[in-house]
Design goal:
By secondary structure, the chain is an alpha/beta fold. The protein has one domain (about 5-170): Hexapeptide repeat proteins (UDP N-Acetylglucosamine Acyltransferase, domain 1), CATH 2.160.10. Helix content is about 15%, strand content about 25%. The protein is built from 2 helices and 18 strands. The strands form 4 sheets. A 7-stranded mixed sheet has the order 1-4-7-10-13-15-16, with no helix packed on it. Strand 17 and strand 18 form a beta hairpin. The longest helix is centred in the first third of the chain and has 16 residues, at about 5-20. The radius of gyration is 18 Å and the shape is globular.
């Protein structure tokens, strides 16, 4: 059995703030699951029903709304917010502040797939899906789903260009699929490259 001290340390660093309710490293709640080599910046708040895969980094001063699901190798910069769809506004004669939350508020899932890079200051509307291998430019506002291997930017975020040509996309997607299928596993995260080994199981 290999004892991964760095993994244990990062899990302690992540969960202790949820117990003491103090946001030095970030605030988290119950019903969370994170993979290996997870990093979260200071003063970042992560709400309920959060899951993240392996090698996920979330920058400082961010807010990750409820029911957010993040894949592997996802990079989220500082001041990123996953927000919205959290107040009723169609009740005639009732101000928004008194209307309560939608019934599906906690179940509205936001999904960020493998190998996504979210730039500084991005706002993402809860409930959208950001496809595998995509990049969102700094200060963008994402209001709709983003296709895989696309680069988006602006307010609201719009398609700019594809990340790879068709051949390179297949090679890249094959790497991610092999990792998901555990054909190889992470053994360390020495920068700048992660270290892998073939999985014998």
């Amino acid at each position: 059995m290999n004892l991964d001290i760095l993994y244990i340390y990062r899990n302690i660093r992540y969960y202790i703030p949820s117990m003491i309710k103090f946001g030095i490293f970030g605030k988290v709640f119950k019903n969370q699951h994170i993979g290996k080599y997870f990093l979260v910046g200071k003063r970042t708040i992560i709400a309920k029903n959060f899951t993240a895969g392996n090698c996920v980094q979330i920058g400082a001063y961010s807010y990750i709304g409820p029911a957010t699901k993040i894949g592997n190798f996802v990079l989220i910069s500082d001041h990123v917010n996953i927000i919205g769809n959290d107040h009723e506004y169609k009740k005639v004669g009732v101000p928004c502040t008194l209307s309560g939350r939608p019934l599906d508020y906690l179940e509205l899932e936001t999904k960020i797939e493998d190998d996504v890079w979210i730039g500084h200051g991005v706002t993402i509307l809860r409930g959208v899906q950001i496809g595998e291998g995509s990049i969102v430019a700094s200060n963008s506002v994402v209001t709709k789903n983003i296709k895989s291997y696309s680069i988006y930017g602006g307010n609201p975020a719009k398609f700019i260009k594809t990340r790879f040509n068709d051949i390179d996309k297949k090679v890249h997607a094959s790497f991610l699929e092999d990792f998901r299928n555990r054909k190889f596993i992470l053994i360390h995260d020495d920068k700048p490259l992660y270290k892998f080994k073939k999985n014998k199981s």
